[in-house]
Amino acid sequence: MDARIDLVSMGADQTPDLLITNAGGLVAGDVQSDLAHARHALGIDEIRVVMHTDCQLHGLDDDSFLASIEAETGHRPSWSPGGFESLETELRAGIGRLRDEPLLSGVALRGFILDVTTRQLEEVGFAG
Predict the structure, then answer these.
(1) What φ, ψ does residue 119 adopt, rounded to 5°?
(2) Which DSSP letter does residue 58 get?
(3) pLDDT band at residue 25 using 50, 70 and 90 as cut-offs
(4) Which end of the chain has a smaller Cβ tally under 10 Å, C or N?
(5) Burial (Cβ within 10 Å: 0-12, 13-18, ≥19) of residue 89
(6) Measured distance CA(60)–CA(38) in Å, rounded
(7) pLDDT at residue number 54
(8) Between the CA of residue 75 and those of 29, 60, 64, what are the distances in Å?
(9) CB distance 115 to 122 below 8 Å
(10) Distances from the Cα of 104 to the Cα of 10, 33, 45, 46, angstroms
(11) Is 114 exposed, middle or buried (0-12, 13-18, 19+ CB in 10 A)?
């Protein structure tokens, strides 16, 4: 979702068959269903989750953010912004949610953190 990021030119070793971008690189409901669809309709056999440094969701306090939207608009969103404290922890949690998704059985899962300053991708290992 961040316009600073072009994964193909920033060191991705090949052009992806499918690229889904979203706020924070978070693995949440819609992303999981999109990936399950890609697995079964398009035959995707590898998923790479990429989060990045200098992300606006890193350190975001969800309640304060929602309260500020409510103060501005008069309406409190029903969704969670997804603020998180640690890129690695959130990345591993997202990969874990994908690993636990039965509709993605057999898909290779990899996680990366992109440094937006150096434009380097660093793979983050996870147990499993």
Answers:
(1) 65, 30
(2) B
(3) confident
(4) C
(5) exposed
(6) 30
(7) 93
(8) 23, 19, 14
(9) yes
(10) 27, 10, 9, 10
(11) buried
User: Please, is 53 exposed, middle or buried when counting C-beta atoms within 10 Å of its C-beta (0-12, 13-18, 19+)?
Assistant: middle
6's CB contacts (< 8 A; 6+ apart) are none
Mean pLDDT of 77-81: 92
Residue pointed to by tokens 């269903």 = 33
- Mean pLDDT, the chain, whole residue set: 87
Total-model pTM: 0.84
Name the E strands within 1-128. Answer: 46-52, 108-115, 120-124
